[in-house]
Each structure stands twice: as C-alpha cells, then as structure tokens.
Amino acid sequence: MKLINFKEFIFFSRPILIPLLFLCLLVAFVFSTSISNLSLLYFIYIILISLLLPFFIFAINDYYDFDSDKINKRKNNILQGFTIHNVNDLKKSILVYDLIIFLIIFLYSLLFNNLIHSLLVILLFFIIFFYSSKPLRFKEIPFIDSISNGLIVFLFFAIIYSLFNNIFSIPFGVIVVSISIMSYHLIAAQLDVVADKKANHTTTATFINNKFFVCLICIFFNIFLLFGGLSSIFRYLFYFNILLILFIYFFKNFNKQKVLILFLCFWGLLTIIYILGKF
Questions:
Q1: Is residue 244, in this structure, part of any structural domain at all?
Q2: Residue at 1 is within a domain
Q3: What is the pLDDT of residues 48-99, one digit of tens each?
Q4: What is the distance, to the nearest Å, from the Cα of residue 228 to the centroid of all Cα atoms in its chain?
Q5: What are the φ and ψ backbone dihedral angles of 52, each rounded to 5 degrees?
Q6: Number of domains making up the chain
Q7: Domain range for residue 37?
C-alpha cells in the first residue's frame, strides 16, 4: 500500500475551505448555545472536524472522479484542487485514512455521552462517503445529488446543535438555509454540464439538460428562505443567491472558479459578522 504524503494530503483536502468550515461550525455553536460554553473539549472537536473532514470528503471524490478529471481538466487550482496523477495507487491509503478519520471523530464524539449526537455523526460520514463512492454514488443520481448536499450541510449544523439541544427543536430557518445550499450544488453542476456529459456522468443538470429550467429550480430552492424567519445577517442570503443564479444564466463566461471565489467571500463575511454579533 502506497502511503499518502503530506503534500498529497493537503492537495486532497482543499485547504482554502478549512477556515470556512471552521467558521460555519463556530456559527452552529454560538447559535446553539452561549459562546461562554466553548470549552477546550468543544474547541478541539471543532478543530478536528475542520481539519480532517475535508480530506474525507474530497479524497474519495477525487479517486472516483479520476477518469472524468482526465477529460475535464477542472482540478488545477487551489479552489477546485489539483489532479493527483497517481491516485489509482492511493486507493487503499485513501480508504485507510478515511477510516482513521472516521474513528477519530466518532470516538471523540463519544466523550459527550450523547447517543443522538453520535448517530448523527455516523449518518454524516455515511452520506459524505457514499456521495462519491460506489455502489450508491449519490452524486450521479439526478436530484439526489443536490438533496444529499443540502443534507450534509444540515447534518454539519445538527451535530453541533444536538450537543446542547433536542434535535427535534432545530429551527425551521436552519432547514431552509440547507435547502438553499442545494442550489449551489446545482449551479456547480450546471457549470460542469459539458464536461460531465463528455465523462458520461449523470447529474441533475445533465438530466434536465436545460439551463433555464436548472436556474428555475435553483430559484425554487431559495424561495423557502423568505419563509424561514431569518432575522440575523443570514436574511441577506436570499438576495445573494438569486443574484448568483441570474449571473449564471445571463453571463456565459461566469465560470466555476468565479462562483467559488464569490461563495467563499460572501459566506466568510456572513459567518464572521454573525459570530462577532454574539460577543
């Protein structure tokens, strides 16, 4: 078994996304309880998830996307990752590393003595793994690909929320934000539609095969934000998402890298403003 070196680990992990994941988990924490409850135990947990989950998410994705990436040539930057040319030699290492990451996070979750929380952790890992991995490979099942993305975002929030609250009391606003996240996946799929067709990948965008209807569905996913009772800075999420969808529809040169930059900047600003407002 060929071991993954540190450089490959970093390449797989999309390190530019780690700070955003950390901020989002921190938002979930300060939403769920007082910032004064952020003990070292909780802080280490958030750090572990932020540092280790990106590898778990993207390494298995890159392995199963290797053949399509040779056709598509998308992964050549810090935002979308870099093609690992010897990825086929690393399959066993990826699976072993993913298992170790799961065990670290799961065993740490047991310290909180919260059965619901630990079950949510297992569910999160299950959906992330089989989003990319065969035999389920949710990312190639039309509509399930977008739904699973929204569910992953919801579960990231839920695992933190469940540490302090009854999971069934989770606010409706969290659900509608998760639904709106589904539109990001569909936007990304639309931007990759030509490459996915060449690689013979089935996504919601290739299945619909109509840019107008894809954008219409994205708008539908965001309509729920108007009824979510969002009173914080997140009430501006609707306007940003609608503008992004319109840009995708009207501007042909609006590529995936530009969308990712806007996404990182907007969500980074959103989370920082929300967290600072809690102090």
A1: yes
A2: no
A3: 999 999 989 988 887 777 666 666 655 565 555 555 666 666 778 888 899 9
A4: 21
A5: -100, -35
A6: 1
A7: 6-277
